[in-house]
Amino acid sequence: MSKSVGKTSTVEAEASTKREQILTAASRVFLTQGYRGTSMEMVAKESGAGRQTVYNQFASKKALFDDTLALLWEKMSVDRIVSRTGSDRSPEEALLEIGNAIADFWVPENTVAFLRMVIAESIHFPELADSFFTFGQGAARRAVTEYLSMLRETRALEVLDPELAAAQFIGLVNEPLLSSRVVDGGKAPSTVRRRRVVHEAVRTFLARYGTDKHSASPRHGSEPRR
Amino acid sequence: MSKSVGKTSTVEAEASTKREQILTAASRVFLTQGYRGTSMEMVAKESGAGRQTVYNQFASKKALFDDTLALLWEKMSVDRIVSRTGSDRSPEEALLEIGNAIADFWVPENTVAFLRMVIAESIHFPELADSFFTFGQGAARRAVTEYLSMLRETRALEVLDPELAAAQFIGLVNEPLLSSRVVDGGKAPSTVRRRRVVHEAVRTFLARYGTDKHSASPRHGSEPRR
DNA sequence: AGAGCATTGTACTGTACAGTCTAGTCCAGA
DNA sequence: TCTGGACTAGACTGTACAGTACAATGCTCT
Questions:
Q1: Radius of gyration in angstroms for the set of CA atoms belonging to chain A, rounded to a whole number
Q2: Which pLDDT tens digit goes with each residue over A126-146?
Q3: How many CB atoms lie under 10 A from the CB of residue A107?
Q4: What would the CATH number be for the domain defined by A18-72?
Q5: For the domain B77-209, what is the CATH code?
């Protein structure tokens, strides 16, 4: 509030604001314990602040939760996936890039924990699920759909139903990499593994939808270097 | 306990045992509200029984939860998916059957609610996630993997990595049908939609892994009848 | 040093809930 | 009609927690 160089301003380095300390602590606790499993006491302890300070910064538990989600959401940015769809490369290269963006998106443990939490709390906070679907999953799907539609019009691919094809492509990438991590607490796949899965996803996808037979080698050509 | 025709035995028809009444009520409440969101009071109300009776039948809330899960689990039976993998039909027909079994598995609202709940409670009850992964998702994946391995050995398909291919196939089916339902509360897809998605999944899969070019029609052949 | 403000710990209120206890009710079978 | 066992309702205990009130303790800037 203080207009000039507020009290806690060590040039805002390191520990940043108390508020942010609390927020990052809250994100840790909420992500591991869920909404109902988290008490204000726990957040206070985790952040090193007093419980009263937490209430000083956030009107209620729900308010803290909302702001925490906003912070997490901000850090994720689906944009990295969406932006890859504008490229002017060959379909194969572009799909590799999009696929890698999708695969990399889920690498940080927090991202998976976030998904888990969205699913868990979607019953009690439907708007959370809505926004996730609209801006997350849905956005990615729409971007891929649009990209495929474009490729259809330029006859670069033979896609009859771009929406379904987009879902297929995402499924080819996500199912091998993600599904076990959501339900079980599996470890994030290595870079090599991710690259390989994406490579295979693109190969399979193009085997079906490619016009010029991209799958250059009739048998099983270029494995990505192990 | 009573050796002969116990008291509540209207030939055990209709309302069945009090215990079962409570269990089915509990499954409704747990599935919609989650573990922490469910109180013994709610279960009692929902089942029409007194709270004390609930405690009479189940030692604790956790015990009730476990038994409820066992009941739900029993009703689901992944066997329907696994058993389809033994067929002696052509790969195309077999894959269609397996794919349809997977797609149909998720039709009942309860199945999706169950998955949602497993994800939600997996933090607090890791053994729940474990058993789900082992006997549910994992079992299906293993069955498909084995089937593909077999096809590889008989040279019916050109599958280098049956495990990855199995995950791909499941992803081709599940992502278009399931992912939006888990996070959002979307409605179950129609039979027509399911058949179509599975058909497309098989087409894509075989375009990549088929030996004789199954995708008989070079362009886009047999659409399933709309 | 002193004023002002954020921070903090502690205590308090109200609520929700698991789990127990008890007294009363209903029903079957003798 | 009597007896025994299950069912029910209500009161009660103990705990956990959201949210508030308040008094004490710093820190910063002047």
A1: 22
A2: 999 999 988 888 999 999 999
A3: 15
A4: 1.10.10.60
A5: 1.10.357.10
